[in-house]
Amino acid sequence: MESMNTVQKLEDLSIQKESVNTEEFLGHLRESANILCQTSGLDCKFDAPITANSLCLDAGAVIQVYENLMSNAIRFAHSKVTIQCEYNVGSFSITVSDDGKGFSDKDLLKADKPYYCGEAQKQEYHFGLGLHICRTLCEKHGGRLKLENAPQGGARITAWFSV
């Protein structure tokens, strides 16, 4: 029942964009990644070559997406997680990659659907809402979510946000 309430609240959520200091915001993302990866014994690579002084976005929504992507990457990574943040006129993106087994063909098609739990997760207590929440928040923020397997192996998810 709680998960259904979460989905309904998500549908009712509205995005409130405001100007955020880029250096502080990226510093928060970097620090979170380092702490999460260290706690899990994983290497972390964070790259964010953004020179804009500020970004116009809903920081809470972006952070929620980021934390979900990091949680998934940490759960499936063998030894490292890589984060790449980019800014282009009108868009900010976060790509989170891991060096795990990656997505199956079925997972690529369904992993961001509500209540989908991949084959490997049947035994875990897992609602299958994380990537659905990410996709919904990205879309509400004028962006999108892309799931793929990285060429070098592992999963790679990119979240785009209109800024």
Write down the overall geometry. Answer: globular
Q: CATH superfamily, please?
A: Histidine kinase-like ATPase, C-terminal domain
Order of helices and strands: HEHEEHEEHHEE
Query: What's the β-strand tally?
Result: 7
Task: Give the proportion of residues in helices.
Answer: 25-40%
Supply the number of helical segments: 5
Q: CATH top level?
A: Alpha Beta
Round the mean pLDDT to the nearest integer and report it: 88
CATH topology assignment: Heat Shock Protein 90
Which spans have pLDDT < 50 for at least 5 consecutive residues? 121-127
| Biggest β-sheet: strands ordered side by side in the sheet | 2-4-5-7-6
Q: Structural class, judged by helices and strands?
A: alpha+beta
Number of domains: 1
The termini sit apart by 34 Å
Task: Please report which band the strand proportion falls in: under 5%, 5-15%, 15-25%, 25-35%, 35-45% or over 45%.
Answer: 25-35%
